[in-house]
Amino acid sequence: MPKILVIDDQPAVCVALATLFELHGLEVRVAATPDEAIAAVLDDELGAVVQDMNFRQSATSGEEGMDLLRRIKAIDPDLPVVAMTAFTSIEGAVGLIKAGASDYVPKPWDDRKLVATVSNLARLRSLEQENARLLAQRGRARHKLAERYDLAGLVYASDAMHEIVSLAVKVAPADVPVLITGPNGTGKERLASIVQANSRRRDRPFVKVNAGALPDELVEAELFGAEAGAFTGAARLRIGRFEEADGGTLFLDEIGTLSLNGQAKLLRVLQTGEYQRLGSSITRKADVRVLSATNRDLPRAIAEGSFREDLYFRINVIELPLPALRDRPEDIVPIASHLLERQAAAAGERVTLSERARHALVEHDWPGNVRELENRLTRAVLVRKGEAIEPQDLGLDAAARVPPAPSAPPGAASGAAFAAPSSERAEIERALVEARGVVAKAAASLGLSRQGLYRRMDRLGIQLERKLK
Known about the structure:
This is Fis family transcriptional regulator. It comes from Sorangium cellulosum (Polyangium cellulosum). GO terms for molecular function: ATP binding; sequence-specific DNA binding. Keywords: ATP-binding, DNA-binding, Nucleotide-binding, Phosphoprotein, Transcription, Transcription regulation. The protein folds into 4 domains: about 5-130, Rossmann fold (3-Layer(aba) Sandwich); about 160-325, Rossmann fold (3-Layer(aba) Sandwich), CATH 3.40.50; about 340-395, Helicase, Ruva Protein, domain 3, CATH 1.10.8; about 425-465. The protein is built from 20 helices and 16 strands. It has helices at about 10-25, 35-45, 65-75, 90-100, 110-150, 160-170, 190-195, 220-225, 240-245, 260-270, 300-305, 310-315, 330-345, 355-365, 370-385, 390-395, 425-435, 440-445, 450-460, 465; strands at about 5, 30, 45-50, 80-85, 105, 180, 205-210, 225, 240, 250-255, 275, 285, 290-295, 320, 350-355, 390. The chain has a 5-stranded parallel β-sheet with strand order 2-1-3-4-5, sandwiched between helices. Strands 7-10-13-6-14 form a 5-stranded parallel β-sheet. Helix 2 runs parallel beside helix 3 (about 65-75), helix 6 packs across helix 7 and helix 17 packs across helix 18. It is elongated, with a radius of gyration of 30 Å. The model is unreliable at about 400-420 (pLDDT under 50).
């Protein structure tokens, strides 16, 4: 973990704080003056700063500390700073928070609380730096992938999607059947387009069929074609989807809802490459690569007898499982921004997402996945009152809670700028205690998904193992 910088003009205080932090495994650097402190900020890798607010015995206003805080924030806006002083006031605390202090601790301090506060801030700083490094690394990897392959306009930022897309472009040239699985609205058709666009059949037909929308009596005619007069109403020759896709790729969406009769007919052509138009005795051959997609649990469907096991193994040489949007929260805002840009361009207007709207988007669980996200943005563009979209425009008022401000010093509870401890935090902690640490149970009692509760705990700094001791 990076060092803790202690800034105080009193040597005894510096020694006491340095000893306290070192006993808890934290490395410490000490500065006695603002100039020494600025040199340390410029020279060293710091995880957090604990600074006094006065550096002369006669000073009590805290102006020197406020000036130092501003100088530190000008150099490193993300560096956590904990202010310490024996002279507390609501006005001073409000000013410190506005100037960028992460917290405010009165002298004499509580050893346990101070160590916990500084440790958490330094740990969070370390995690944010590591995340920034990883994001930059991932961004470079995504950029290289997009330079080398056609990603069909797919927008993503998460590791989970990067792994899936990387596998998709890797298997694209192999000409084997691919099964794309995942909930409705996650982008299965887009992923199929990526496989097609990077295959050896990229310049050949790409035919899409919603297998779930095919009535059982029309499956054969739709897939294989029908001669004129083959059935009532067949007044002319009908070319089937396999014939249409010959030499290219056939995408069978919602294959999990195909009837058993339809599955049997499909299996036969996949095994032999041969088929006959309805009403014809001529055997035809089709050179077609089949991509399939489903939101069903096919192994369970096989166990229930509603899906053929032999067909499953025929279409599932490679599986590409798409995660739900709630399980890849890093993708939510980038996708939303991309969709919003497209909608704003179509409307010829400038539209943005407010910070509260971004927060609400990430907090929502997205049962309808990307499709729901697009629908909510469409609604928001239509009903917004200004340039910026707010949570109520998205219909996400309940998810629009803003992260709480840092805790206030003793005596400051009556100040308008310092609310009591976050009601959201208290609600979550109470639910966790009542659930005896079982996150799934606590999430259910709060009306959240487990992932949604974990995200809120992370945002509020709630550490389960510490809170439930």
